[in-house]
Design goal:
Elements (H helix, E strand, L loop, with lengths): L6 H7 L10 H9 L4 H15 L4 H14 L3 H9 L8 H14 L3 H13 L3 H17 L3 H14 L3 H13 L3 H14 L4 H12 L8 H13 L3 H13 L6 H17 L3 H11 L4 H16 L3 H14 L4 H16 L3 H14 L6 H14 L3 H14 L6 H14 L4 H14 L4 H12 L22 H11 L3 H13 L4 H13 L3 H11 L1 H5 L4 H7 L5 H11 L3 H12 L19 H10 L13 H19 L2 H10 L1 H11 L4 H6 L4 H21 L24
Length: about 725
Amino acid sequence: MRRWTGWGLLAVMTSGAGAWAQSAPTLESVRLHRADARTLAQKDFRECEARRCADAGRMALLAGTLALADGDVNEARTLLTGASVAEPLRPYLAYYQGQAHFYAGDAAAAAAAFARALEKAPPGLASRARARRGEALLAAGKAKEAAPLLEAAATAEPSVELLFQRAEARGAVGNAVGQRADLRAVALRFPAHPYADEALAALNALKPPPRLTLPEHLQRARGLLDAGAATRALDELDALTAAKLARTKVDLARVALVRAQALYATGKKKEAQEALAVARKGPPGVAAEAAFVTARRALKEDNATARKLMVALEKDFPQEGPADEAGFFVGWLDLQMGHFEDAVKSFTAFDQRHARSRRRDEALWYRAFAHLRLAQYAQAREVLDTLVSAFPKSSLVPQARYWKARSHALEGAPADVLAPGYATVITGSPNSYYALLATERLRELGQEPPTGFPEAPRPPSGEGVPPELQRVVALTQAGLFRDADEEVRSHTARIRDSEQALAFAGALLRLGEFGSAHAVAARHLWGRAFGARAPDALAAFYPRAFESAVKSEASRYEVSPFLVWAIMRRESAFRPEVASAADARGLMQVIPPTARAIAKKLAEPEPAPAELFSPSLSIRYGSWYLSQLMKRFAHPALAAAAYNAGPDSAIKWVKDKGSLPLDLFVEEIPFRETRGYVKQVLADLYLYQSFYGEKEAAPHRLSLTLPAPATDGVGF
């Protein structure tokens, strides 16, 4: 996907009069890849050139890169060749001059331009320029000069492009062994990439042509299947069958297993089942995988049937890998069907049979939860104690501690028994959903909960733009947002300690680069924020990102700005450029169909999909949608569940289990992703409120009972 940066920098830099050469509409169009971006950039350049303004070179750089992106190589060469820019941008100008020369067919001029770029290129650009110079030298017939550059580039970053180019360089200098190795790597590791077909053609042109083995064909088929190219995966399997590579019963079973998965992906259920029947006749490992595919498919239709299949799998193939997963699913399905006694037995058996399972802590939790639902509180506490002692670093420890205290409450224990357990959750995991629940439980007892964070977030001290970000500002000012993003990433990758990380995160926060600051904090400042409870580190984890827009839109649509920030933090981690596999876009991860429905409700033109990366639009649509969800569901837990899984799912869950108290209800949300989503959003919502809410106001309370949703309201 395309990536952009500089949203915060745009706000900071445009606040000063005359700070930008390009107009704000031009930069916004460039950032969103609108169709008019190139036209606007050229217009800005021509007007500046006519006035002989000092920024003409910088504006020509933007117009030239946009022409290059559109494939207008001659226009790009004209604009870039005559441009003159300040020092921070010179390596980038040279780099894009090299790109223009290369695509115009002048490889020698391209190699020279890339060499100029390398003279003062920052590390992030240097790696790109070095690789491109190697490619240009190779195209110019200078394989000996190109080879060491491409060797280094492909070793540092073994991308499909660099591996393919290195294969060409190796072949040109007589390194046939290395050439074959790179071509095979491209064909096997990147089967869905266009270079994979070229690599196969190049391999077949060698003397003698190497032949792919059965495992290699299967590797390609699985890779194509993972890439969503199921039809091509079937073609790959047909090719190995035609070559008669699968001859034994074992080989035929392995091929049938992959074929079945590809057939399911293309909607050919009957043929897939026939292939699975062949796979089940193979060796135990393959037969177990085939049985697991069958059982997982049954999960989509009938839990009882799926459970029977999982039980049979674990019994028939106890030593194979899928038996572990199958045993876990047996207990999980018992829970989903409300068979809590069976769940206890199933998870107890799982613990005995799969003592080394990666799911053992999760299995212990579900076993304890089944005891809780059976009102077997002493047994639940025993299992929860085992979880905490056996897996002290598990992410499940906070909930184990909370539910241990809660089990005492469900037995009717007095406050002096309950309070220490709840307090331990708050002090041990102050940023967790379970700390929020424990806080509410203590308030129910009439006790003041301990303070999780003594101080509210406070951005690290400092002012101005630090030297390491001066080039980022220059790139953003020039409209080279992708390059600015690469520069930030390059600096982030070189951070080595928390003090350096804190200073860098603080600078990013001052520039409004909230997503990058959060990423630095998540990598380097976790202990400082949640161990030492340092307010300067917390600021990067819980920024008031895009504050003006959030407060304005939240006020307009009568929704809490803290809920908007909590959703934003979970959805995008404050990065406007994020796009998901489901095509959700921007800060609030709005998908195009939802955006069209919102636009219709607001009686405004439908936005283009790229517009959803705009922070202002994403915040507006997300705020409106959250306000409608809160009007319909009247509880942030249900609004969060609906935001993630859709209103229909949230309504069904409330209908089925809405009588449960909030803590039990959330634990029984059947979708793992939604369950975790609701927990984090609630935790973040109440942290934002405690950090930034009015200090003199009474604490915001989380209702532990769920209201019935309104019968009408937003349904998309």
